[in-house]
Amino acid sequence: ISTVLNAGICLLMFYDPEKDALVAQEPAVGLTKNKIDALVIPMKAGGSLVSVFQEDKPFISNSVLKDPSTKKFFHGYDIKNLVIMPLKGRAKMMGVMCVANKKGGFTQRDLELLTTSARQTAIYAERTQFYEATKRNAKQSMLLHRLSKDLSSTLDLKVLQKLIVENVVHLLDAHKCSLMLVDEESGQLTVCATHGLDDEITRNTYTEAQERVARWVAETGRTLLLANSNDPRFQDVKYKGGVCSVLSVPLKVKDKVIGVLNAGSLCPHQFTKEDLRILSTLASEVAIAIHNAQLFAEIEELYLDTMKAMVRAIEAKDPYTRGHSERVTDYALAIAEELDLSEKEKELLYTAGLLHDIGKIGIGEEILLKPGKLTKEEYDVVKRHPLIGTQILGTIKALREAIPLILHHHEHYDGSGYVSGLKGEDIPLSSRILAVADAFEAMTSHRPYRKALGFQEAIEELKKNAGTQFDPIIVEAFMRVVGVSDISRD
To answer: What are phi and psi of 67, to 5 degrees?
Structure first.
C-alpha cells in the first residue's frame, strides 16, 4: 500500500480485547520499532483512531492534524496528511489501517483503493486469527487430554505433582510453574513441585510478598492474573528471573482449598484471561487427582501400620523373634536390589517379608517357646504356620498377591521343603529370596532351643545348603550383599 500510494507511513492496528485498546502491529512503514511498541490506544482515549474503529467510518485529512489524541499518537512525526480506514472482517471489527504522508495528498480514488484493501486485509487477518485460535485450541485440547490421562495414571503423590507442573508449562507455553499444597496441621502453603526452577531458586524465589499472593488466592478461593504488577494490592511483588506475568489459581475439593497452582511467563510474553480460564478449568481436575493421591497415601500408611501391628502381635507371643520380620525384610529387599527386581516385586516382597510368620499366631506358646527339641508331631504343627498365615490374610484383598510368597517361603530348592514340596523354579522367586533371608536371620539370632550362630558360621551353612535347601543364585546374591566374595563351599 505504501508503494502503490507513494505514502511515507503505513501501519495496521488490531483491537486487543485484553487491553481494550488498539495495538500497532509489526511490520510497519515509516515508524521505528520503539514507536510501534509504544502505539497502544485505549478505547477510553477517544479521538479519530477510536472513532473509526467504533463507528466503522473512514477518516481523511489532507491538512496538518488538529485532533489532540491523533496528534499525540503521531508525536514526533511531521504528518502532512492522513487516512484512517476501518478493518472490518466478516464477523467483527478487527482494527484500523493508518496511511499518512502521501505526496500530493489523498484523492477520492485513493480512498476507494484503500477501502478495498482494508476490507481484504481485515478478512485475511480474521482468517489468520481464526486459524491461530483453532490451532491453539487443538494443541490445548490435545495437551488437556494427555494431562487427564497422566492424572489418572498414578496415585503416587510425588510423581503426580511432577506431572502436573510439567504439563501446565506445555499447556500454557509458560516458562515456570509451581504447585503449593496446604499443610493440614500448620495451615501453611508449602512448595511441593516446580518446573523451570532449580531447588536453590525455589527456596529463594518465593519472597514474603509473593507468598502473600498465594495466601490471598488460598484464603479467598479466587483466581489471579498479574501482569507487570497491574494489581494495586500486589504492586510490591517483584518476581525474579525476568517473570512479568503470573497466573495463580486455587485447588479446591468440595469448596475446601487444598493448594494453589502458579504459572509464570518471561517478558515480553504475558498471560491472557483465556489462559486464566484454561488453568482454572484444569485446577478442578488437578485438585481431585491430588486429593485422591493423598487419600491413597493415607490408606497405604494405614495398611502399613496394620501390617506392623500384626507383626507386633506375633512378637508379643514369641519375644525371641522380636525384630525378626523387619530384619528378614531388610535382607530380602537387599537381595532384590542386587537382582534388580522391579518396584512392584519389591513392594510385594516387603509385604511378604513383614508377614511371613503371621501364621505363628495360630501356634501354641508351649511349642513356640519350648526350650528343647521338638517332637515330630510338634514340628508338624509348626510346619503349618505358612498355611495358617495365608488363611488369616486370605480375606484381605490388598494382600492376596503376597499370599503365594508367604505360603512357599519354607519350600526347599530340591523339593524337600513344605507346605507343597515345590522344587527349583516352581517356587516363586520372592519365596526363594525369603527362604535365604529368613534362614540367615534365624541362624544369627538367639532361640529358646539354641544360641545364635556367628556370622561366618551362618554364611557357611548357606553355602553348604545352596542347591539343596536354597537357590544357589539367591545365595550368591546374598553373599555379594553382605560383602562375601568367596562363595565356594569347600
So the answer is: -65, 120
Which residues lie across from 257 on neighbouring strands? 252
Q: What is the CA radius of gyration of the chain?
A: 37
Amino acid symbol at 352:
A
pLDDT at 167 > cutoff 50: yes
**What is the model's pTM?**
0.55
Which of 475-484 are b and which e, b meaning 16 or more Cβ less than 10 Å from the residue's Cβ? bbbbbebeeb
CA 20 from centroid of its chain's CA atoms: 35
Note the pLDDT tens digit of each residue in 473-490.
999 999 999 987 655 543
> How crowded is the C-beta side of 396, counted as CA atoms within 13 Å?
16
Q: Are strands 176-182 and 7-16 parallel, antiparallel or unpaired?
A: unpaired
Task: Give the Cα separation of 426 and 419 in Å (integer).
Answer: 13
pLDDT cut 90: percent of the chain above it: 38
Residue type, 143: L
DSSP-based three-state secondary structure for 96: strand
CA 119 to chain centre: 47
Integer Cα distance of 234 and 453 in angstroms:
70
**Pick from 385, 357, 471: nearest CA to 423:** 471
The residue whose grid cell reads 472482517 is 89
C-alpha cell of residue 299: 490408606
Residue partners of 321: CB distance under 8 A and separation at least 6: 314, 315, 357, 360, 445
Q: Which residues of 290-306 are buried (b: 16+ CB within 10 A; e: fewer)?
A: bbbbbeeeeeeeeeeee
What would you measure as the largest C-alpha separation in the chain, in angstroms?
123
Residues 82, 75 contacting (CB under 8 angstroms): no
pLDDT score of 221: 92
Distance CA 278, CA 258 (A): 19
* Buried/exposed code over 24-57 (b: 16+ C-beta within 10 A; e: otherwise): beeebebbeeebbeebebeeeeebbbbbbbeeee
pLDDT band at residue 310 under the 50/70/90 scheme? confident
Question: What is the rounded CA–CA span in Å between residue 168 and residue 306?
Answer: 38
Helix (H) or strand (E) holding 365: helix 365-368
Would you call 109 exposed, middle or buried from its count of C-beta atoms within 10 A (0-12, 13-18, 19+)? exposed
Angle at 332 between CA 329 and CA 334, to 5 degrees: 110
Distance CA 388, CA 403 (A): 11
Cβ atoms of 234 and 200 within 8 Å: the answer is no
Q: Which residues contact 298 (CB under 8 A, 6 or more apart)?
A: none
* Residues 6+ positions from 36 with CB-CB distance below 8 Å: 11, 24, 25, 26, 28
> Which element (helix H / strand E) includes 182?
strand 176-182
**For cell 527349583, what's the residue?**
424
Sign of dihedral through CA atoms 393, 395, 399, 402? positive
Q: Is 460 left (phi over 0), alpha (psi -120 to 50) or beta?
A: alpha
